[in-house]
Design a protein that fits this description.
Layout: H1 6-20, H2 25-94, H3 126-132, H4 141-148
């Protein structure tokens, strides 16, 4: 990177003041600042994109290792279950009918009790709501306006 100290910055500023002039120097400095800011943002975006691609490659490698491990586990489970089924089938064919291998008893399927949806009981009785002034029914906007509109006297 460029090594810019305070003395070099002062020298650059003095040369710019002489070459550009005091009237245009603020505008030029602003333009240079915005261009440097844009360049810095662009460099940061490129760095972030490179980091993301590197992380994506690492994640792909990790995904491949996990998938291969899952395949290995799946194949071992399949081989184990095949061996177990083979042993179980051999045991059932060699045993006699009265050896205690009876099917488990069947139970009736649970049926949830149905509720009567027509009967709906509120927590507060209707007469109490009416006496205390609690609204029991929702009013539409037009009905509310009509209810609270002042009465006309003729």
């Amino acid at each position: 990177m460029i090594d810019l100290g305070i003395s070099k910055m002062a020298l650059i500023g003095a040369v710019a003041l002489i070459v550009i002039g005091p009237e245009k120097l603020p505008r030029v400095a602003r333009t240079v600042g915005t261009l440097l800011g844009k360049a810095q943002r662009y460099v940061n975006d490129v760095k972030a994109e490179v980091n993301r691609s590197m992380e994506l490659d690492e994640l792909r490698k990790m995904k491949d290792t996990v998938e291969s491990a899952a395949r290995d586990v799946e194949s071992s489970i399949h081989s184990t279950t095949a061996d177990f089924e083979k042993q179980f089938s051999e045991a059932t064919t060699t045993s006699s009918p009265g050896t205690g291998l009876e099917p488990p008893p069947s139970y009736p399927e649970y049926k949830r009790p149905r509720k009567n949806w027509r009967i709906k009981q509120g927590a507060v009785p209707g007469w109490y709501k009416a006496r205390t002034g609690v609204r029991r029914h929702a009013l539409s906007g037009a009905a509310r306006v009509a209810r609270f509109r002042p009465k006309k006297f003729n």
